[in-house]
Amino acid sequence: MKHFIVEVIYKVPLEKFGDAVAEHRAYLDEGYERGMILFSGPLVPRLGSIFVARAESAQELVDFFENDPYKTQGLADFRFIQFAPTRYLPALAEWFEES
Questions:
Q1: Which pLDDT tens digit goes with each residue over 52-88?
Q2: How far is CA 20 from CA 16, 47, 73, 94, 98, in A?
Q3: DSSP string spanning 16-52?
Q4: How far apart are CA 28 and CA 37, in angstroms?
């Protein structure tokens, strides 16, 4: 597995997101169920959000987020940063070492 930081950069103020927030969160459930997303949360201040994710390839992750309501509705851009985890808490070993 390859590991990534996914940066979500809002293109419009959060007040204009409307129902897309709930749709986005519901869509992310699939990523969590697939073991693709370890955690996520908004930036402070709320100008975007961050994910720690994994996938077989960068393209698989890009393809997943192409269907995110924030992307499909033109509300945010996504930046994918691949990294190679070398140290982590033992509690995270299964997530990082699973292939």
A1: 999 999 999 999 999 999 999 999 999 999 999 999 9
A2: 9, 15, 8, 32, 32
A3: G-TTHHHHHHHHHHHHHHTT-EEEEEE-SSSSEEEEE
A4: 8
Give the contacts of 54 (CB within 8 A, at least 6 positions apart).
1, 2, 3, 4, 35, 36, 38, 95
Q: In this structure, are strands 76-83 and 2-10 parallel, antiparallel, or unpaired?
A: antiparallel
Instruction: Output the pLDDT for position 25.
Output: 95
Q: What 3-state DSSP class applies to 84?
A: coil
Residue 55: φ, ψ to 5°: -165, 165
pLDDT at 99: 59
In the numeric block, which tokens belong to residue 78? 């996504």
What confidence tens digit (pLDDT) does each residue in 7-47 have?
Answer: 999 999 999 999 999 999 999 999 999 999 999 999 999 99
> Taking Cα atoms as reference points, which of 69, 72, 56 lies closest to residue 29?
69
Amino acid occupying residue 50: I
